[in-house]
Amino acid sequence: MGKGIPDKFTLTLAGGADLDLDNIRVKEIPPINSAITSIAPLTLEPVSLAITQLPTIKLDLAVKELPKIDMDIGLKPTRVSMPMNTHVCLKVLGLKLLDLSLCGENMVILEPYVPRRAEIGCS
Fold first, then answer.
1. Alpha carbon distance 8, 16 (integer Å)
2. Per-residue pLDDT tens for 32-53?
3. How much is the pLDDT for 68?
């Protein structure tokens, strides 16, 4: 190669301490015993599932008889009593002119509807 970047380098290290470690040698390596004699390779194979035919299900349902359902909606003939106490007072500039007090019992009677003679022609 001509002048340019060298492709070989020499590195020299020098020191002043010598510990005399040049004569250390490994004479023997003890044998290594293993209980595992062989390892089989693990292989995973793909698993595929396929449904080729769906089962046929037949249902035969029939209603032979409907149950009887009784619904009693409405109010049966009933008498309802409500106690009352009504007080009416008329005052002008703090002067009582009229004071009326009614006590008694109101009554509500619930009975089946039967149209009256006047209501028959209105429909």
1. 27
2. 776 766 777 778 788 787 878 8
3. 83
Q: Strand locations in the chain, DSSP E?
A: 78-92, 95-110
Closest residue by Cα to residue 111 from 79, 73, 83, 72: 79
Share of the chain above pLDDT 90, in %: 11
Locate the domains of the chain by residue range: 78-115
3-state helix, strand, coil in the chain (%, to 5): 5, 25, 70
Per-residue pLDDT band at 20 (split at 50, 70, 90)? low
**112's tokens:** 């089946």
Q: Which of 120, 108, 103, 60 is nearest to 80 (CA)?
A: 108
**90 CB-near residues (< 8 Å, 6+ apart):** 96, 97, 98, 99
